[in-house]
Amino acid sequence: MVKLMSPLKLATKLLSEEKTPTLSIVAPMLAKLRSDFGSKHSDLSVIGKMKDQFRNYFDSCYNYIQDFLDNASALDPRFKELNFVDNTAKDVIFLRIAEEVEDMARADGMLDDGQAADAEGDGRRHGEEDAEAEEEFEEEENEVQEMEEEERGEPEPPKKKSALDLLLGTFLTPRAPEKTIRERAKEEISKYRGRDGLGVNGDVLQWWKDQVDLPLLSKLARSYLSIPATSVPSERVFSTAGDIITAERSRLLPEHVDQLIFLKKNLKKSHMK
Questions:
Q1: Whole-prediction pTM value?
Q2: Helical ranges in the chain per DSSP H
Q3: pLDDT tens digits, residue range 100-138?
Q4: What pLDDT digit, counting tens, does each position of 151-194 carry?
Q5: DSSP state of 84
Q6: Contact predicate 31/6, CB 8 Å
Q7: Within 13 Å of residue 167, how many CA atoms lie on the same side as its CB?
Q8: How far apart are the C-alpha atoms of 145 and 142, rounded to whole Å?
Q9: How far is it, in rounded angstroms, from Cα 164 to Cα 187?
């Protein structure tokens, strides 16, 4: 029984850490535990029953946020290969991430009205009513153009080129069309998936800081990897507060308590040096 429970002890310890991201560990760890608790012919009767109970429990865990946990693992360079899911699911996960990058850009105001409309057209929320409205808009726009041409009677003459354009136009590099957020997101994801992964003990946050050419993906990764997998870190904060506020220090002001807790949790010995 001790041997059977040892993986759970390691899982609890890893998910309770504070100095490294923990949310991205949940999905691969759950897959590993399902594998470790598989039934074997050599198992004792009581061990087999315990494994069955644990497998049933694992199957009921995190079902409502499984996609969320898979996205977090995909944004962790240690697990970005997603070896705990099949190849079809990998592409689906990174497609969801591209859509989230686009939603994040829209929320931050990075999309103008035209790009936002195009993004919604490409997204899953684009319905038949939007398509019909777009057709009606195009028909009305064509009618307006025809009416304007009839009023003018003659087509407008072509615009004259400037002297600079006539003289040096052939030397100017044509400006490439600006990429949409969806295209930029897919390009960044392609770069990210093609890069070498990070070792299990590597510094995930420092790795993302070094990826200066992946700004959109880096921002989304920070929003995921900053989430703790368990409530243990917050429980430790309460324990720290209990160590600071004692009967001998009952006259501490609230703002001083906040400052002491903050320093206790964030000030490192290297800072003191």
A1: 0.69
A2: 2-15, 26-36, 45-60, 66-74, 87-107, 113-122, 128-152, 163-168, 181-194, 204-210, 215-225, 232-244, 254-266, 269-272
A3: 998 988 887 765 445 444 545 554 444 454 455 556 656
A4: 555 566 677 777 777 676 676 666 667 778 888 889 999 999 99
A5: T
A6: no
A7: 3
A8: 5
A9: 36
**Contact criterion met (CB below 8 Å) for 46 and 100:** no
Question: b/e string for 161-173 if b means 16 or more Cβ within 10 A?
Answer: eeeeeeeeeeeee
Question: b or e along 87-112 (b: 16 or more beta carbons within 10 Å of the residue's beta carbon)?
Answer: eeebeebbeebbbbbbebbeeeeebe
Distance CA 49, CA 74 (A): 34
Give the tokens for residue 85. 């899911």
- Residue 202, phi-psi category: left (phi > 0), alpha (psi -120 to 50), beta (remainder): beta
Residue with tokens 């920070």: 222
